[in-house]
Amino acid sequence: MSLSFYKMNGAGNDFLLLDCMKEDGHIPLKKEEIMYLCDRNFGLGADGVAVLARGRGKHCEWKFYNCDGSEAEMCGNCARCVVRFLADNYFPLEEVISIETKVGVIKGRRMGEEGDVEITLLEGGVKRVDFWEKVIKMDDTMLRLYCIDTGVPHAVLEVNDIRKYPITKVGSFLVGHPAFAPEGTNVTFFQGNMGQRILATTFERGVEKETLACGTGAAAAALVYSQLYMQPLPVEVA
Question: Among all residues, which ones are annotated catalytic?
Answer without folding.
Answer: 75, 214
